[in-house]
Amino acid sequence: SSNNLRTNNFLRHVESMRLHPSGAGHIPYLNAIILGESLATEEDDFVLPSEDFASQANVQSPEQYLKLYKRSIEDPDGFWSEIASQFYWKQRWGDKVCDENFDIRNGNIKIEWFKGGITNICYNCLDRNVEAGLGDKVAIYWEGNEPSLDATLTYSQLLDQVCQLANYLKDIGVKKGDAVIIYLPMLMELPIAMLACARIGAVHSVVFAGFSAEALTQRIIDCKPKVVITCNAVKRGPKAIHLKDIVDTAIHDSAQNGGISIDKCLVYENPSAMKKEDTKWKEGRDIWWQDVTPQYPTTCPVEWVDAEDPLFLLYTSGSTGKPKGVLHTTGGYMVYTATTFKYAFDYKPSDIYWCTADCGWITGHSYVTYGPMLNGASVVVFEGAPSYPDSGRCWDIVDKYKVTIFYTAPTLVRSLMRDGDAFVTRYSRKSLRVLGSVGEPINPSAWRWFYNVVGDSRCPISDTWWQTETGGFMITPLPGAWPQKPGSATFPFFGVQPVIVDEKGIEIEGECNGYLCIKKSWPGAFRTLYGDHERYETTYFKPFAGYYFSGDGCSRDKDGYHWLTGRVDDVINVSGHRIGTAEVESALVSHPQCAEAAVVGVEHEVKGQGIYAFVTVVDGVPYSEQLRKDLILTVRKLIGAFAAPDKIHWAPGLPKTRSGKIMRRILRKIASRQLDELGDTSTLADPSVVNQLIELADS
Ligand code: 6R9
């Protein structure tokens, strides 16, 4: 077929670049070979962008990609400074674009981009676009939980509102470098609050509004914010959740347990969810957003900051109990999110873009707020749930706003797939041209359904691999350039050098499987873990000296395509949410009747992974349905509903080595009922626990 011919031509092209001395030969993993005749395996399953799509794309072919990529690696300073020059800098950076020590053997890890450059990301998102004539362009299309509720903000209106809030924050004493916690659902006020902080140089820390009071308390104690911004309540589907009550508890507990006093809590009244009068109130501390912000001017001078001044903190799960405060700075993050957004989604000024992620996660930071707005894009912000009022809601929204780029997570794709094609096909979806996926590997069957049913076999899918730590896309298709393979994140973004290493940290070439690391920094990289640079180095730079270690497994096929295989540490990925097994375990053992707990991830049809908890109860406590419920409730209370275990498995004992280390490998096999694959259990201190566990598997 003509597609096979085009695929062959493409691969032949890559091959000739590889062999040619001035070609891609020095890029070891672009080891594409000429495609054979058989298309039998997943690896050989190519999906090409249509010629129409490719010919209008920002990057139209592998040659174009390779040329840009090669430049980004060979001349990173030239490559990134040209891009950075498209933004407004009050003062240009010093002589070095990048200054890094990426190798722990040479001393402390340090990453700096555009150091000495003076800028402001809010200015670049808003003022710069307004000055360029985009003032009347819609910045945000807001869609409420109820289909009848919506609103829009143009770029100039958004700028006005951001300035009013920024002026208020300044007035109550928030200064450059101060932390501000934002605990808001997907209202327009969430990006407004982020941008207002950025405008005055304050460091925002958005806490996903699905986190519990305890989780919020922990974050307040860690970053000691000057103010907490929230709203009284939010509707999720038919249910109202009283966010302000959660904040009240957290502020109280932060004072009690951490000695942190929060003098100001700014509360947005969300009238569709809860009336003002019904909101519990603490006079003197609590202030209504709507009462104060209109009193302030709609212009606010920008706080000019160094490219390396902190922009935000975002807490994420690691393999030990305490969440990590991932710190991003201003200049490199700005340049990187804007550029990745533009290329990975083939962004054009006429696009209407919708990312379903919440701003409480990194995806909402980089690809709801900053990346799109730096490009002057029109962004859909959706408050509600994709299944409300029914499973057709996403496509209703796509048709309503004529969404052209739709970016979501595999878990949502799988759950909509399960609900049936009819919810999709009753909508036109004609406006769509690019689809995106993030959060976990997308399995080829979900990829196919997304591509064929949602995108009518017309829209390339950008399967973007990246992390809270990386700030922006790392491995991603450029939709017009590459033939895709369903389930593969394809090739690195400009400036990114992924390597796959073995246990000893030795780079493996060609077709292989191992640990995914990155060689050299990229502008969007995080700079530290807040208040714990040592943990930063230990977690990310010590496991494989000389590299950044992602925590993910990855294989590379014969054509050089990357296939992410999931976390290799004790982190579980539930519906794209990172959850540390240790966090869930410590929540479980806080229950007085739980003596010990061990948590593993198991395959889950919709969520990708489910949480499976082995629980040893305190001597003499009987197993009961009530205890099971209480344990699950404890996790919901301490972390949030999204971290609730799917299964509690009673464990009279846990399989431990003689040195007391829990053998999770065995627990994973028991959890997934692969009982004939338990492997060697002879090193266990007490091998009989394995049989006890198997007996209790379905009780
Ligand atoms: C952006 C985000 C990061 C972890 C990451 C990996 C998984 C994300 C993926 C993917 C395969 C993709 N992950 N995108 N795995 N393919 N396209 O999700 O950040 O919440 O920090 O999670 O998510 O395991 O290490 P974060």
From TrEMBL:
Top-level class of the enzyme under EC nomenclature: ligase
tRNA-binding recorded as keyword: no
GO molecular function: acetate-CoA ligase activity; AMP binding; ATP binding
Protein origin, superkingdom: Eukaryota
Coiled coil: none
Keyword check for Cell membrane: no
Positions of the AMP-binding enzyme C-terminal domain: 583-661
Span of domain Acetyl-coenzyme A synthetase N-terminal: 65-125
Family annotation (Pfam families): ACAS_N, AMP-binding, AMP-binding_C
GO biological process terms held by the UniProt record: acetyl-CoA biosynthetic process from acetate
InterPro entries for the chain: Ac_CoA_lig, ACAS_N, AMP-bd_C, AMP-bd_C_sf, AMP-binding_CS, AMP-dep_synth/lig_dom, ANL_N_sf
Ranges of residues in domain AMP-dependent synthetase/ligase: 134-521
EC number: 6.2.1.1
Keywords: ATP-binding, Ligase, Nucleotide-binding
PANTHER family, A to Z: ACETYL-COENZYME A SYNTHETASE, ACETYL-COENZYME A SYNTHETASE 1
HAMAP family to which the protein is assigned, alphabetical: Ac_CoA_synth
Family as reported in the entry's similarity comment: Belongs to the ATP-dependent AMP-binding enzyme family.
Designated name of the protein: acetate--CoA ligase
